[in-house]
Amino acid sequence: MSASGSTKTGPEPPSITTFLTFSGTQYGKAEEAIRFYVSLFPDSKVEYLERHGEGEQVPAGELRRGAFTLAGQRFMATESEGDARLAFTPAFSLYVSCRSVEELTGLFTSLSNGGKVHMPLRSYRSSQLFAWFDDKYGISWQLELRKSGST
Predict the structure, then answer these.
(1) Which residue of 2, 9, 50, 124 has the smallest Cβ count within 10 Å?
(2) Do both 97 and 58 map to the same domain?
(3) What CATH number should be reported for the domain holding residue 94?
């Protein structure tokens, strides 16, 4: 059923996947980040890691592209050597609605370690428990304790 409530048959809609480009100071860290993120979330896995081959402009074996799932959500990642214009920014962040205080504090501790905190983990007027930070790979995260009854 669609958002409008109708049941349409026809071509399958396009899929949308968050695509992360590791560049500038984060170049060379995509695979490490993928494996780190997958280790933190349930229902997560590395789908594939595609590597550059011999005779390409980058050394053979370096990551060309990877796909992974975090808590059932699909992501892709690549690397772009030295192009700091493509650096990550907090203007785009991954938002995680956590089921418990323990889950939220565990993720905050792991993900914020070595990163930069924009809003420390605490209660805010708009949220019972919230944190916003960049991790050590430059990816911006917002973690919030799920309100009871919300999904």
Answers:
(1) 9
(2) no
(3) 3.30.720.110
DSSP character at residue 137: T
**18-23: strand order across its sheet:** 18-23, 73-80, 63-70, 45-51
Instruction: Look up residue 68 and give its amino acid.
Output: F
Per-residue pLDDT of the chain (151 residues; tens, 9 = 90+): 555 555 667 788 899 999 999 998 899 999 999 999 999 999 999 999 999 999 988 888 889 999 999 999 999 999 988 777 888 999 999 999 999 999 999 999 999 999 999 999 999 999 999 999 999 999 999 999 998 655 5
pTM of the predicted model as reported, rounded to 2 decimal places: 0.86
Strand partners, 97: 144
Pair of tokens at residue 134: 């960049």
Amino acid at 13: P
Pairing mode, if any, of strands 93-98 and 140-145?
parallel
